[in-house]
Amino acid sequence: MAPHFLIRHPGKKIDSVITHPKIRDHLVRYLTPTILTICIRVCKGWQKSFTPNLWREFRLESYRHPGIQTIILHAPFVHTLICNIMPFQDVIVKSDTLVFPHLSVLTFEDNYACHLENDDLEPFMKKHGHTLKRIYIGQLYNDDQMEFEWMTHCKALESVYLGGRAMQYEKYWRLCVKAWRYSRLKELEFHDVHFPADDLKPWKDEQEKADFLKGPMMSIRRFSLRKIYQLKISGCTEFLKLCPDLRHICLLNGSSSTDRTALQEFLDCLKGNQWPHLTSLRLDLHWGLDQIIEARAEADLTELDLEDSGFDKDIWNALQRSPRLVATLETLNLDNCRYVTSNMIHKMLATLPNIKTFSAPVMHDGDIYEGIDSHRWVCLGLKSFKVTIRVYSGPEGHAAFHRKLGLLTNLEKLWTDNHVGDHNGLCYRLDVGLDALKGLAHLKYVDFAKPSSLSNADVSWMATHWRRLESAPRPVIGSYNKKRWTLPL
């Protein structure tokens, strides 16, 4: 496999892969003035392809675009024997001539092979840190030795994402906090990291705590802990108390380590005036969700992301008991919630008048057909709908579902997937009752995963009636090599 560069141009939807002899022409023709995404993949045997001339070409062409605001460096894990031939630090980080005066976003995604260390990033941040607003760090080589002191140059920093093992040791968490003291953070997210303790307190004593309170944490609006090991919800609460301006809290993988005492402390904060501006929660708890919903019953909660949680009938009843929550909820994600029934989904769509984005778990087509007229959907403002249909019966259920779906005239995005429920070869029939969907004139994105019947005439019908679709249908190879028709946004 030859080394190649993947440069995305979001404005023109260009997604081109080129080998290095064409890099000059490609950059001249397609490089957007504001965003540069470089994805370099290398396999053993191509070491000699990375010549000084290649990198000089790249540096020269990049320099012609001083308006670049975003740089994304993506190098998936490669054989350790060839790590040293990937001179990111020589080309971008250590370059004396390459300057991006308007750089605001810097992403290192899965860069095991980059060999970026403190000495590499220090001079780069001295030049660019004052304009950076967002830093995304996936995985870095030798990240257990990364001390993040270069973040002290990022005084305009608003958003930080740390993933992989970048926060494996407690001292680096403390160093990061000290570095962020010079900025006004609004968003902080950790994903798949290892905290050695059960808490997030970045201070050792009262003096350090007093210093910490002078830092930027008071301004954080979005806080996310995803796939965090060894960290309990009890360890988050005291830290989150120091962030009174929170709008969004995401705590995932907390279900197995949450005790009742810790949950009660979290509930007390939700019930009180600890986070008066909180409007969004993402939780995967398998018990205690009903209490959390009741705790925010009188608040203006607009988003509930409960994917993989234990959402069930009792939790739904708790939600219905809050007229204010029913009226304000705009986003509800129930993906992979095994206790949610099709009848419950019908009730939700008939109860939540202002819902705009809804992701449902599996709906049985037989239930869809039987309950289709039992509940009058009131969510006529729904703009994004994702549903998985498990097939048990014939096409009647699909036709009935399409009749109901056709009422959602404001719909802009639609996903429907199917799971074959018996051994009769039944699949989701996209073509059954298709005329009922003529009214979906605002559709911009449609994804019918694994439809059993989608002819050229059906595709032509979509292009005729759904004129706002961004592009024509095209086949995409999905899992298990099954054909997947999708109309990408």
From TrEMBL:
InterPro entries reported in the protein's UniProt record: LRR_dom_sf
Highest taxon of the lineage: Eukaryota
Name of the featured protein: F-box domain-containing protein
Organism: Entomortierella parvispora
